[in-house]
Please model this.
Amino acid sequence: MLGYYLQIGCESVTDDPQLPSAESFAVLLEAFVSALALRTVGENPALNDFCLENLSPGRKVSDIAATSQTVVRAARQHIRRLKNSPSTARKAAVLIGRNLYALFRDERLKSVEALNETLRPYLTVLFRVAARAHYIREGRPILEAHGPPRSDEPVTTSLSANVTRGYQALDFVVRE
Model:
């Protein structure tokens, strides 16, 4: 479900065409590279080609199937472009959400725990982009308004259980 909303968040045009930012796209690419390393089955040429096409739109299709290393090199090159020339590189980064969605949906990864741990440094940006997409798609925010917390209670943000897609539902609580 996270991948689904990341794709929408990356590709949807809204009143603010600068969102997500170049920095957010760079973080999404870093998360993608990290998660790609969790594959358990090995090379998936079809996914590698799909991801490389999204990272390098307009590239010439070669006779040699893309490898994980080719995909990682293209992602790292794109991260450098986003950091050096954010306004021009940002336009080509909108398809990174598709790569994350395909990776989460189609690949066998080590474990949910390993994926959670790998994505931990990127979760703020991942959730921000996914929340943006949820608002774009559903017309309402994920967060429920609870008012300011009392000073003696922990800060709790509750996400609505009505974030659904088909038979999947997302419901969790973040405590700080």
